[in-house]
Amino acid sequence: MQIDQETKKCTFYSSTGGYWTLVTHGGIQATATQVSANTMFEMEWHGRRVALKAGNGRYICMKKNGQLAAISDFVGEDEEFILKLINRPILVLRGLDGFVCQRRGSNQLDTNRSTYDVFHLGFRDGAYQIRGRGGFWYTGSHGSVCGDGERAEDFLFEFRERGRLAIRALSGKYLRGGAAGLLRADADLPVGDALWEY
């Protein structure tokens, strides 16, 4: 998956060497050799799932025979898909003010460091669990994100721009770098300091 810088639409490049493309009667095939309007898809986030809208204004669904087609006018169960990072068992995050790392002598996470910590990713049912050297990430009081949990908490990754993602906590709020350099789950929108290079 690649996200276009200007339009924020995405393209999907298949293992067979072609881009997904919209073809006659709404079908989706991995046969395009170049990016065009028919290979660009709008992504809509629905919690743990994503819906894709093709250039014809319709949503992609999976037909009973397994074929993908952009023929739906609304989003239902057949139009929702799970996106999973399969080539990233570890995570390094950088925000507007610096890298994310565990604060020395504390369970809180800093977002303004010149060096980074490496975090490990788990995946379950469309959500990620993030583990550092002190334990699992979880949201504490007042939206602070802590890194010493014994049990994993689910976080949702939303791929919003090329090389940048937003991370949503169970509260529905996005993680952002706070004014004092603390990682907090208190942003309403996935913009600015709530977007992370990964």
Write up this protein.
The chain is mostly beta strands and 198 residues long. The chain is built from no helices and 20 strands. It has strands spanning 2-3, 10-11, 19-22, 28-32, 42-46, 49-53, 59-62, 68-72, 90-91, 99-102, 109-113, 119-124, 127-131, 136-139, 145-149, 156-161, 164-168, 174-177, 183-187, 196-197. Strand 1 and strand 2 (10-11) form a beta hairpin. The mean pLDDT is 94.
Keywords:
198 residues, mainly beta
Present the secondary structure layout:
Layout: E1 2-3, E2 10-11, E3 19-22, E4 28-32, E5 42-46, E6 49-53, E7 59-62, E8 68-72, E9 90-91, E10 99-102, E11 109-113, E12 119-124, E13 127-131, E14 136-139, E15 145-149, E16 156-161, E17 164-168, E18 174-177, E19 183-187, E20 196-197
Antiparallel strand pairs: 1-2, 3-4, 5-6, 7-8, 9-12, 10-11, 12-13, 14-15, 16-17, 17-20, 18-19
Alpha-carbon distance between the termini?
Answer: 15 Å
Strand tally, please? 20
Helix content: under 10%
Q: Beta-strand level of the residues, as a percent range?
A: 35-45%
Give the CA-based shape: elongated
Radius of gyration: 18 Å
Order of neighbouring strands in the sheet with most strands: 9-12-13
Decide which structural class fits the backbone: mainly beta
Number of H- or I-type helical stretches: 0
Query: What low-confidence regions span 5 or more consecutive residues with pLDDT below 50?
Result: none
What is the N-to-C succession of helices and strands? EEEEEEEEEEEEEEEEEEEE
Overall average residue pLDDT: 94
User: What characterizes the major β-sheet?
Assistant: 3 strands, antiparallel
